[in-house]
Amino acid sequence: MDILPPVLEQWFAARDWTPRVHQRALLAAARRGDHALLVAPTGAGKTLAGFLPTLTDLIEQPTDRLHTLYVSPLKALAVDVRRNLLTPIEEMALPIRVETRTGDTPSDRKARQRIKPPHILLTTPESLSLLLSYPDAALMFADLQTVIVDEVHAFATQKRGDLLSLSMARLQRINPGLRRVALSATVADVDAYRAWLAPDGDIDTVATVLGEAGAEPNVTILIPQGRVPWSGHSGKYAASQVMAEIAAHQTTLVFCNTRGLAELIFQELWSANDANLPIAIHHGSLSIEARRKVESAMADGKLRALVATASLDLGVDWGNVDCVIQMGAPKGSSRLLQRIGRANHRLDQASEAILIPGNRFEYLEARAALDAVEAGERDADDFRAGSLDVLAQHVMGLACAGPFREEEMLAEIQSATPYSALTPDAFASVLHFIEGGGYALRAYDRFKRLTRDADGTWRVSHPRFIQQHRLNAGIIVDQPALAVRFANGRKLGTVEEGFAAQLTPGDSFFFSGMALEVVRMDTSDLVVRATSKQARIPSWGGTRMAMSTRLAERVRTFLARPDQWHRFPPDVREWLDMQKLRSVLPQPGQLLIETFPHEGRHYLLCYSFEGWNAHQSLGMLLTRRMDAQGLMPLGFVSNDYALAIYGLKPVTDPKSLFSADILDHEFIDWVEQSSLLKRAFRDVAVISGLIERQHPGKRKTGRQVTFSTDLIYDVLRKYQPDHLLLKAAWADARARMTDVGRLGDLIDRAAKTMLHVSLDRVSPLAVPVLILIGREQVAQSAAEDALLMEAEALVNTAMRAD
After folding, report:
1. For residue range 308-346, what is the model confidence (pLDDT) as tens digits?
2. What tens digit of pLDDT does each residue of 63-115 get?
3. Which PROSITE patterns match (predicted)?
4. What is the pTM of this model?
5. CA Rg, the chain, in Å?
6. Separation CA 264–CA 590 (nearest Å)
7. Which of these CATH numbers, 3.30.1050.10, 3.40.630.30, 3.40.50.1370, 3.40.50.300, describes 218-375?
């Protein structure tokens, strides 16, 4: 069953290749008609394995119809796969047409693709959803044989995964014989992904194919001059050594965890680039043109290094990359493994990677990540019920394709695993929302998008709502942003409104690897010119990457295992030894609370290792409770490992602050009074289609969208607090914006596992987080020098043995 057609066998032989076991296994699964999940390391030929059954089918049974849909999380990945897939097709002279369809595809080509589709169409979840909104979708997909979901781990557990799962349910209804295939290098829970992939969640219909293990990666931790910094998270201190590594390798990918950090690191590397090596930057806020130019330069081997964010840690195949450098902590073993795999991209050659921790805690995290990779441990995958705002968008999209019966639509939706538990009542509430916006909004015609006929059939109320849906559909909600342009109109990318609001003409900032001076700004554009003036790094909103739960457990274990410390650099061992002498090191599962005075203030340090997002939420809650108790808190700072609160009065009973009801009362009050819920509501209102991002001929500014959603939010809070979108916003706020699951776990164990240690002065373990005080704003020149002196004094106090 895994026998290839002669032309394919000859193509492999001409290259001195032999099809790998997992490639033949995927072909055998296809011949049996099974769905399949392939988990194989980077460089194992996953993409070719996914397409092998398609090529075989099209060789043995030619057709002029659409045969295979390939769905990727990134537009760049679709373009890259098309380039690589065309090579074997052209070398074998096969009459197979391959095209991409993303938001960047010209409109005339999109229209032609619906009438005369290619044999293989490469697309994204959003573009597939839009295709299904056309009346001719059933004809276009009638003979579709296979859907390939690449890098499935990147979106299966998120809202984009909800949308794709619903779209596959519709495709399965159009052609019940459709096969589903998913590919990934980093999957922890194979059965959970099989269930997500399978129609009706029936994992027995999904074959599991495991790729052979590749060469063990060669991963090291770079320690500059034998010392690990006390604070920071960028690794910028190692810029000259990173440039030396770039000079010693053919091509290097330098990964950063955020866009702002990527801009900072690029500037640091450029300053240290004495040899003038060609280096570039790539992240999601740069213009499409800038990104494509950089991607082409990398593919052609014209760059020695590329500083990038997660925009490039998926799948893009550049075989000439021979080194990957991770600036700052990796935050998760799966992410690290994914990024390591970008080097060499060959199964039989060891990938070379270098980790550069930003501080001493990050050194422990980097060491924990290396151990996890060696042990084959992956980060846990957090599957959850499908989002109702996504469901509302999907239902409206299918209504654009034609009328539907409620019971038939519900059965189809329930066949998508994220929505398998959707009740008839919950679905009715979604339809009621699309029908008129809900009870509080029923008087407004602009929310009446669906109408129910007398026979029970649902249809779109007016053709204008179809155009509105297609203009505004999508799951990724961009933050309000301004375009960054030169005076000649050339667009460099976008910065968020919040950052732009801090700028005035004459101010300078780094963007796209350049120093730019603000000339003027209007409602949609920030007009700039190149400058040599000192510049600042732009900031972007959004949730920070938090250290994964499994890495946090490994770091806790390091603290409690002195027999492991011989693996650490001398200064890290000295730091831990001094903490053990002067205070305690928490045991796994234990919550260490330290309190001490320092320079006229009283501090509470909570070492919970639950990530920056959870600690930020906890800091807000605890300071509110401390204020109510008359403890006069002044503020707090946090990192992934600890939370530090400082105030005018000492905390003598921390247990009272951590009581379980803090999530029942203070948390709800805080979220409802903060902008957190309004931001979440804005996103779900846009995704669900209640608010337009674009109107024919005009795109709303982020400020206009926010104003509209804020007004509706206030109306619903007052008149319909149980509205579907308020529930969806709460789910988002709890799960995505506050890491409330980890926060809840922390609160649950606090009373039973808390160890309170009262000290006479700052402890060694407290230094990395306390140094953050005063660094919340970008410090310049003299202020930076003063902070360095203060940090040195803090370290000297903490590391004194007496």
Report:
1. 887 654 545 555 788 888 888 777 777 777 666 655 555
2. 999 999 999 887 666 667 777 788 889 999 999 999 988 877 888 888 898 88
3. HELICASE_ATP_BIND_1 (PS51192), HELICASE_CTER (PS51194)
4. 0.80
5. 27
6. 37
7. 3.40.50.300
